[in-house]
Amino acid sequence: MASLAHDHNFWIVGGAALVCILGSCLTMLLSRRLVGSGGLRKQFQTSLSALIGGMTIWSTHFIAMLAYQPGVAHGFATTLTVVSLGIAVGGNAIAKMMLAYGTGHIRTLGGGAVFGCTIAVMHYVGMTAYELPGYIIWSFSHVLLSVVLGAVLGALAYRSVIEGKSNHASLFATVLMVASICAMHFTGMAAISLNLNPLVFVSPQLMSDGVLATVVACVTTIILFIGFVGFSVELTTEREAVAAVQRSNLHDALTGLPNRLFLNQILEDLDDQRRGSGNPHVAVFTLDLDRFQEVNDIHGNRIGDAVLVEVASRLKEVCAPTHFVARTGGDEFAAVFLGFESNEKASSFAQRMQDAISRNIILADAALSVGVTIGVATTLSDETALDEVLQKADMAKYRAKSDVAQSICFFDADLDRAALDRQHLTHDLRQALPKQEFELNYQVQIGTSSGDIAGFEALLRWNHPIRGRVSPEVFIPLAEETGLIRSIGHWVLHEACLEAANWEKPYSIAVNVAPQQLVQPEFVAELDGCLTQSGLSPHRLEIEVTEATLIDDKARALEVMYQIKKMGVRIAMDDFGKGYSSLATLRAFPFDKIKVDRSFVSNLHLDHQRAAIVRSTLLLGDALKMPILAEGVESEAEYAFLRRERCHYVQGYLFGKPQSREEIHPLVSGVPKVRAS
Ligand code: C2E
Ligand code: MG
Ligand code: MG
Q1: How far apart are CA 577 and CA 599, in angstroms?
Q2: Do residues 156 and 45 share a domain?
Q3: How many domains does the chain have?
Q4: With 450 labelled, which of 51, 144, 650, 672 sits at a CA distance of 20 to 30 A?
Q5: How buried is residue 418: exposed, middle or buried, by Cβ count under 10 Å (0-12/13-18/19+)?
Q6: Does any ligand 1 atom lie closer than 6 A to the CB of residue 653?
């Protein structure tokens, strides 16, 4: 009596283990992929992993069988050997389909168990193919154990593939698959005892060890071949998919040109290169099409798109390998010229781009022409980072846009400094409110009949950390352009109301309100909120608006003004006389006060024209029953004139400059006190 568990050639067992490990690795890597993919790719991966998994089990089994040397004549029945291969592949296909298309436990534990049972069925069919002079005696407890071990370990391997996301999980699943095959095989082998009997006939038609070894070698080679080919097809497909996504992220869908993101990456790369070796110079161009909006408006978006595609292709035509061109926005493009040596070279490239774009564009039913404005900045003049060079090219482009004489402009520090400065200031202005850099000053307003204080005007101050105090005449227009005025204006209103509510003397408080602020939908609610939160009586609040505030959206402005007046808040017309249609504005809107601009007040006692304007404004005020306030009173003579002419209120340096909250405290309270902020 002999046992198959003994008499093994361990070199061949090692070979079986190697095939088992390699095949399991490939199978599990593919299984992991098929879990996350779909469509045809999933079918391909399912078939491939079923084929490799099946062949791996089969090869492992038969190589291990070849390792057994019983010392008597033996062989393998051909049909059963082939059937066992079919069982291995077929069973694996079922297991992989459960893994690929099943759900819940069917997918993991079910698929894995089918896999384990497939090993068992293949193993025992394979064993029946093994013939030698004698009889096989089975230990059923071992057989049962081998099936259970194969199924449990297989189920665990599949669960690990599904649930684990990391590479460790794949490795673990591979180890479990190898364990499942080996545990099944060797327990199955241990289940067998041989009762050798030379009288038992062994057919001479059986496959010999040599033939089986050749077949197994072929199958193993096929496993490895299709495994590696399949896997490299997988990797290539994946790489192509990633490249396609990257490409679509970095390219403009309409023209196929690189987009702004790509341009930024190129500029960053060039920055690194320039820091590294050779320091090649770079010229950056920003391009803006002229009359493109017109094309879109007249001919429609389809033609507009066709024009952009044509412009892009012409730009590509003029590009050499040292040039890079991108579409950075609607009708905006940018180009980079690497390694240029002189401004002349950059200029001639810009000229070539302009000539190419300006040629007539012939489309199906129209011949169109668009021009282009180009701004250029280079690293020749200074060594700043390329994103700044790009900004400078933009500034040069803006200058070119407003200049009728030239459509290609190079950045010029002197000419473009103002624009650069504005850009920096705008950047800082965005931080000013959160960084608490704003402060309100208050300028006193005097009633001329009594000479007493009538109220204060709140004037905004920006304490810039480096520039010091920035004039509102500089930053208010910036805040209006950027829309920041809404939040800033709200802060001013809130702060001024809180401050005035805290004064012991009930002086009125005048707050300047910008055009954008007044017409924004939330303004009335915000104003109401400020009054409620501060507890300030609406009658003490005066809103100052300029003519510009009212011109843009007359109907809306009028509606808001009536709502404000209904709340009990007064409205003054600021800077009267400065605008183009002050009289018409005055007639159309319900003002409570007119503030004569300080340009008419300065030296009005010496200037007949100014005196006449102020006199007629006072008459107008009388007729409309609107009190008049003269701004910018600096001298006693001006004040004397205004009093004589019965101007109702005055404001100016003669009575007090705009002062801080602390400085006006003695004026607003009997007992000086400081409001807690
Ligand atoms: P404004 O509302 O006409 O304010 C009067 C301006 O004249 C203030 O300049 C004030 O300091 C100045 N001023 C007053 N008296 C005299 C004087 O006797 N002589 C001279 N030469 N100037 C005098 P400021 O504070 O620089 O403000 C300028 C403008 O900025 C304001 O003109 C107003 O249009 C705007 N502004 C100020 N604060 C705010 C605000 O909180 N919101 C809005 N939207 N605009 C504001
Ligand atoms: Mg004002
Ligand atoms: Mg004014």
Answers
A1: 9
A2: yes
A3: 3
A4: 672
A5: exposed
A6: yes
The candidate with the shortest Cα–Cα distance to 360, out of 352, 351, 371, is 371
Residue 653: domain span: 437-607+626-635+646-669
Are residues 205 and 67 part of one domain?
Answer: yes
Of 637, 644, 586, 647, the closest CA to residue 607 belongs to 637
Using the atom order of ligand 1, give the atom closest to the CA of residue 546.
34
484 and 352 belong to one structural domain = no
Q: What's the CA-to-centroid distance between 598 and ligand 3, angstroms?
A: 7
Would residue 147 count as lying in a domain? yes
- Is ligand 1 within 6 A of the CB of residue 652? yes
Q: What is the CATH number of the domain that holds 594?
A: 3.20.20.450
Strand ranges, E, within 226-363: 282-290, 323-327, 332-338, 361-363
Rounded to the nearest angstrom, the distance between the alpha carbon of 574 and the centre of ligand 3 is 5
pLDDT digits (tens, 9 = 90+) for 347-383: 999 999 999 999 999 887 778 889 999 999 999 877 7
CATH number assigned to the domain comprising residue 348: 3.30.70.270
Based on the domain organization, do 182 and 311 belong to the same domain? no
Give the residue whose CA is nearest to atom 20 of ligand 1.
Answer: 632
The model's pTM is 0.55
Per-residue pLDDT at 340: 82
Instruction: Give the nearest ligand 1 atom to 651 CA.
Output: 15
**Active site annotation includes 268:** no
Residue 509: predicted pLDDT: 98
The predicted model gives 15-44 an average pLDDT of 79
Taking a C-beta distance cutoff of 8 angstroms, is the pair 112, 239 a contact?
no
Closest residue by Cα to atom 11, ligand 1, is 658
Reported as a single tens digit per residue, the pLDDT across 314-339 is 999 999 988 999 999 999 999 999 88
49 and 103 belong to one structural domain: yes
Residue 49 in domain = yes
Q: In terms of domains, do 454 and 509 share one?
A: yes
**What is the CB neighbour count within 10 angstroms for residue 203?**
8
Closest-lying ligand 1 atom to the alpha carbon of residue 479: 44
> What's residue 607's pLDDT?
93
CA of 573 to the centre of ligand 3 (A): 9
Please provide residue 453's backbone torsions phi and psi, each rounded to the nearest 5 degrees. Answer: -70, 130
Neighbours of ion ligand 3 (CB under 5 A): 574-575, 631
Task: From the candidates 499, 631, 645, 663, give the one annotated as an active-site residue.
Answer: 631
